């Protein structure tokens, strides 16, 4: 069922000075990734959730925005049954968690910085951040990196990717949330796109996956894969 994931290369292009970027998330039939006020929803069924964890295992790093940390308190680890591990993949490799957090709102109580967390997060922030919080997070094992901001006040994604390249990250999986999905979709920096579509409606109060689609790419090399009750769309974005 998951063979198609092994056919995708998540390696960077030859000579590239930034990692391969994969954008992946789960949405409802009406394009929502969360419920009212951002309520976390389990949209993916068991098979597409397994596909997401296989994808996590195939990337060096996994990225979410601070909105997702504050809302979901995620672990961002690989959790797979032994029979679902890709053949010949060896022991599970957990991706490096990476968080975009412009002002350092990252809570010192988050699961990602618990003593039991497998890999402590790398948190990217702007020059205008909470300096005491930086010290507190570093004391818990997190690494904090400072990036410039773009014209919209968001952390510069090209600078992020070039820093990750210097840190030997070759593949980056972007999971969300809405703000981060929108920024990456428009950025022209995504090489692989994998979208889980769950057969449910969330309703108008839910959180849209993208704020506006003006600078969104068109898609090439499209395929669709049935995973239980869900469909996963796999495609390569093309920016005109
Ligand atoms: N269904 C799914 O697959 C997923 C759903 N979610 C849902 O998404 C929601 C959270 O989404 P958001 O509130 O939009 O938070 P988000 O996780 O997208 O974080 C947005 C924040 O990241 C920071 N940021 C820094 N640089 C940025 C940049 N270049 N572009 C965008 N943001 C940047 C800003 O502080 C911004 O407020 C939650 O409800 C969560 O449950 C999150 C991940 C996956
Ligand atoms: N693939 C997928 N399907 C859903 O239905 C989801 N709600 C998500 N959410 C993402 O997974 C994170 C939770 O990860 P952990 O289980 O804590 O490792 C959540 O924060 C979203 O990024 N994904």
Automatic annotation (TrEMBL):
Bacterial bifunctional deaminase-reductase C-terminal domain: residues covered: 19-231
Pfam families given in the database record: RibD_C (PF01872)
Cited SUPFAM superfamilies: Dihydrofolate reductase-like (SSF53597)
Record's keyword terms, sorted: NADP, Oxidoreductase, Riboflavin biosynthesis
InterPro entries reported for this sequence: DHFR-like_dom_sf (IPR024072), RibD_C (IPR011549), RibDG_C (IPR002734), Riboflavin_Biosynth_HTPR (IPR050765)
GO biological process, one term: riboflavin biosynthetic process
Transmembrane listed as a keyword: no
Pathway, per record: Cofactor biosynthesis; riboflavin biosynthesis
Reactions catalysed according to its record: 2,5-diamino-6-(1-D-ribitylamino)pyrimidin-4(3H)-one 5'-phosphate + NAD(+) = 2,5-diamino-6-(1-D-ribosylamino)pyrimidin-4(3H)-one 5'-phosphate + NADH + H(+); 2,5-diamino-6-(1-D-ribitylamino)pyrimidin-4(3H)-one 5'-phosphate + NADP(+) = 2,5-diamino-6-(1-D-ribosylamino)pyrimidin-4(3H)-one 5'-phosphate + NADPH + H(+)
EC number(s) stated in the UniProt entry for this protein: 1.1.1.302
Listed GO MF terms: 5-amino-6-(5-phosphoribosylamino)uracil reductase activity; NADP binding
Protein family (similarity comment): Belongs to the HTP reductase family.
Role summary: Catalyzes an early step in riboflavin biosynthesis, the NADPH-dependent reduction of the ribose side chain of 2,5-diamino-6-ribosylamino-4(3H)-pyrimidinone 5'-phosphate, yielding 2,5-diamino-6-ribitylamino-4(3H)-pyrimidinone 5'-phosphate.
Name by which UniProt lists this protein: 2,5-diamino-6-ribosylamino-4(3H)-pyrimidinone 5'-phosphate reductase
Organism whose genome encodes this protein: Mortierella polycephala
């Amino acid at each position: 069922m998951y063979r198609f994931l092994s056919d995708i290369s998540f390696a960077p292009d030859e000579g590239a000075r930034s990692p391969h970027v994969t954008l992946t998330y789960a949405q409802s039939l009406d394009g929502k990734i969360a419920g009212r006020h951002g309520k976390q929803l389990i949209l993916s069924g068991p098979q597409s959730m397994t596909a997401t964890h296989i994808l996590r295992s195939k990337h060096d790093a996994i990225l979410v925005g601070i909105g997702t940390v504050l809302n979901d308190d995620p672990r961002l680890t690989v959790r797979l049954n032994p029979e679902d591990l890709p053949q010949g993949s060896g022991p599970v490799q957990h991706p490096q968690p990476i968080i975009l957090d412009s002002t350092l709102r990252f809570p010192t109580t988050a699961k990602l910085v618990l003593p039991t967390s497998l890999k402590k997060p790398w948190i990217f922030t702007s020059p205008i951040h909470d300096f005491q919080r930086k010290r507190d997070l570093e004391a818990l094992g997190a690494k904090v990196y400072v990036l410039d901001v773009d014209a919209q006040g968001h952390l510069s994604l090209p600078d992020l990717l070039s820093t990750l390249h210097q840190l030997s990250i070759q593949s980056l999986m972007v999971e969300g949330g809405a703000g981060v999905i929108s920024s990456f979709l428009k950025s022209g920096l995504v090489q692989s796109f994998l979208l889980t579509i769950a057969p449910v409606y969330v309703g108008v109060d839910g959180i849209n996956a993208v704020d506006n689609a003006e600078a969104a790419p068109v898609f090439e090399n499209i395929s669709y894969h049935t995973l239980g009750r869900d469909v996963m769309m796999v495609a390569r974005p093309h920016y005109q």
